Amino acid sequence: MQTATPVPRKAPRPRADALRNRERIVTAAREMFVEHGPEVPLDEIARRAGVGNATVYRNFPDRDALVREVVCSVMDRTAQAATQALAETGDAFDALEHFVHTAADERISALCPMVSSTFDQNHPDLEAARERGERLIEELMERARAAGQLRPDVGVGDLMVAVAQLSRPPAGTGCLGLDRFVHRHLQLFLDGLRAPARSVLPGEVTTMEDLRQA
Length: 214
Fold this sequence. Notes:
By secondary structure, this protein is mostly helical. It contains ten helices and no strands.
């Protein structure tokens, strides 16, 4: 008598309300990390998200897991902005500009320091999100470079340093009150990226690997 081979059961899909709760937690955490830094109490995050503390810990067992999820989600949305810009059929430099302004709106200047100070930089989720974003940004820049619109002596690292620095509030200035200046200053920077270049840049083209080793 043969025994029937058991059919493996599929893992149950998360309920829609559970997914919404997780998304609310990540959104609330991102907002509060930008406003107060990564040490903001998880109770406050739960309150802003409109969920109980148990729901936060059911989704994220510790603070590092939540911070990592927030940073990865920002990287993913930034990569999506690059993908959308790449899909545009219009001007290549306009697509690059669209990406830069979207990246600034994601508040990467406030979240990037968490990558080096809060948790493992080599976590697989973080590395995958980072590699995907860098690849897409390089493709976006290369398209503008090939069109003769982007000066040849800048790299992905140059671009991301400028976005982070120009969207970071000066000392003593509230992060959320800086919005009316950020896009103005980013546009000044973008105009400086246009080819032909008006000056020779000191130093070498900066890559993301250069930044990681600095």
